[in-house]
Amino acid sequence: MSPSSYIDASMLELFQMEARAQADVLSAGLIALERDPVAADHLEACMRAAHSLKGAARIVDLKVAVPVAHVMEDAFVAAQEGRLRLTPEHIDALLAGVDLLLRIGASDPAATSPDPTPADVDAYVLKLSALLGDAATLSPAPLPIYADTVAPMDTGVQASERDTVGRAHETTTPIVEPISAAAPGAPVPARDATGGWNESFVDRRAVTVADVADVDTSGERVLRVTAGTLNRLLGLSSEALVETQWLTPFAGNMLRLKRQHGQVDHLLDTLRLTLGERAVDPVVATALAEVRRVTTETQQALTQRLTDIDEFSWRIGNLSQRLYDTALASRMRPLADGVGGLARMVRDLGRELGKPVCLDIIGERTPVDRDILEKLDAPLAHLLRNAIDHGIESPEERREAGKSADGVLTLEARHSAGMLIIDISDDGAGIDVEALRTAVVERQLSTADTAARMSESELLAFLFLPGFSTKKSVTQISGRGVGLDAVHETMRQLRGAVRVEQRYGQGSRFTLEMPLSLSVVRSLLVEIGDEAYALPLGFVNHTLRVPRTEIEQLEGHQHFRFFDRHIGLVSARQLLQYAPSRDIDGDIAVVVIGDTERLYGVAIDRFLGERTLVVQPLDARLGKLQDVTAGALLDDGTPALILDVEDLLRSIEKLVSDGRLSQIAAHAQDERGKRRKRVLVVDDSLTVRELERKLLSNRGYDVAVAVDGIDGWNQLRAESFDLVVSDVDMPRMDGIELVTMIKNDPRLHNLPVMIVSYKDREEDRQRGLNAGADYYLAKGSFHDETLLDAVEDLIGGASA
């Protein structure tokens, strides 16, 4: 590439970046002007942006862009001078001009037929000119405003000027200045009322060419640093922050050593006083005095060292925190950099649907990690589109409800407790909970009885299911049930969460909560199989200790009651393929994970507390490890794996569907340490099943239940029982077949089986006994004591 072509390419790149930056200023200003057509600051900002783009287009010889920018500038000048009042039609046309300028900036001027064509430009100029009418005088060929100061590139720039431009572009610390079309001596605004295009220009320049490590807010200097270097810097500073936590236990050990030393000193004083009453050898007395002197000096030295350690711990902790905050800030970008196009999208979609609506953004300067900011674009757009399509009413409906005709969406960002919180709310109709309840039943996601008992929060959780939508028809905007599912999935990837609240007739609010950075995660440390594992706190619902006596057996699975709800209990050892733990007395440590529809309690060995961990990605050669997302180092250097909660939930559901869940506390002991005998009740009737379970449990037996023969057979293969009490008529596998399989199994053929059935004919009884049943009891004739007496006849009392 020749030097001249290199300079041309670099200048074109600068124009493209300036076009994007100035387009943001124009879009934001035009949307604000639609609400207040005479806002002087926005008119001034838009006029300057159009003027600057016109001059920049002349410099890079993009002649096709000049008339577009010129006619737009005339419109803003006319509005400033009061000759034109901007209407929505003017705003539409000017926004179309912004899009046209972006297309021109993105096109290749060296191509034989660049897109857009001069004909497109002429058509646009004529259209906007017609809208302006007599408000502005437009010349078909705008005068070259910059002819006196900057020559177009095709007429030749002085060699010295070209060399200067080339050197400025090649330097590793370039001074990036906006290309201004202002007259000589005219002030070039570093920031304007819309947020300052100079700052936006610098940031976009950095994103295109390199990552920005440090930007002087005065615009003095910009450093070009790779994104990888920034990531490593943040990782090292995060490790330094975590490593400082090692000083706390070290200081604690030193304090214990000082107390032990104080005890020695006290013993020496006691010994000295005791020997003082007796005649002591002078050598012994001298040695004792020397030991006393040394211990005193050591005690003083320990006290001084402890003071030094405390001071150093505070200083190094403060320094590490500042280092981490500075490294994190270098990766941060203001939220405005990621939401610049949302106001335009909201405005255009509202006009398309006939719903005037505006977007208020609060906290545009809130710092956001650039990795997170890049992933937020799609979720925010989905939520805003849903709010306009589903939430905001038509102008007529809003007037009838006593609201203004124009709808309002609010996007608010803030930091709270080390998390980034983004709220998206609207003043629309809210969510019709009853219509949502009906949709849940129609899509067979729940029975009508269950749906009727669901709370509002439980129903709202269905909105995030894949393919779920309350709309009857599919449009280009919504109706496929993809948007909120995509939001939920993105939040999961960001180790965050999404919540929804609504007030019918007044609007709804979606709250996105995510960590400030993906390089550090606040975690709950637990011990499983003598190893430390971390669970991101964002995925932990509750932690608790469940008494073994409160574990119930329902539908073949273990449960415990939590806030009046049955929560399935799963062993973390089984999930991570460890050997089962010893059956020890005491409560079970449980971590509750999952969402409204799938909530599980994971039994762990013990809690280790909360920690802030630096995320260490696993080697790519390992591939995706099941149930694991990353690694980390603990305070003492011990490695720990960070668990993937979504993977854990999928693993749990697979174990449940396959009937392979192992039992926890299956062999609970009574106060005397004797094992309780276990009885498996198999019956498809919930009423009979629960009656028999309560009767046997009250007598002291450990009772498990199964809903049919298949469920019972699966439990018999996985666990040990002393007796089976089974019905005859059951779906999938009846009681006769179950008895036959038990008696034909070499491991189970000695297991006593009792049949309890409504069939009381002699041939029915004989059929059961011929299959191998040890006892046949008719439901129509037995009472409580009859059943209990029969059980005791077969296996004796409840204690082994």
The CATH homologous superfamily name of the largest domain equals HPT domain
The level-1 CATH class of the largest domain? Mainly Alpha
Q: What is the second-level CATH architecture of the largest domain?
A: Up-down Bundle
Structural class: alpha/beta
CA-atom Rg in angstroms: 38 Å
First-last Cα distance: 91 Å
Helicity range of the residues?
40-55%
- How many extended strands? 25
Task: Please give the count of helices.
Answer: 25
Q: Into how many domains do the coordinates divide?
A: 5
Strand composition percent:
15-25%
Oligomer: single chain
The chain-level mean pLDDT equals 77
Quote the CATH topology of the largest domain. Four Helix Bundle (Hemerythrin (Met), subunit A)
What would you call the shape? flat
Short description:
The chain has 5 domains: 223 residues, HPT domain (Four Helix Bundle (Hemerythrin (Met), subunit A)); 104 residues, Helix Hairpins (Orthogonal Bundle); 180 residues, Heat Shock Protein 90, CATH 3.30.565; 139 residues, OB fold (Dihydrolipoamide Acetyltransferase, E2P), CATH 2.40.50.180; 118 residues, Response regulator (Rossmann fold). The radius of gyration is 38 Å and the shape is flat. It has 25 helices and 25 strands.
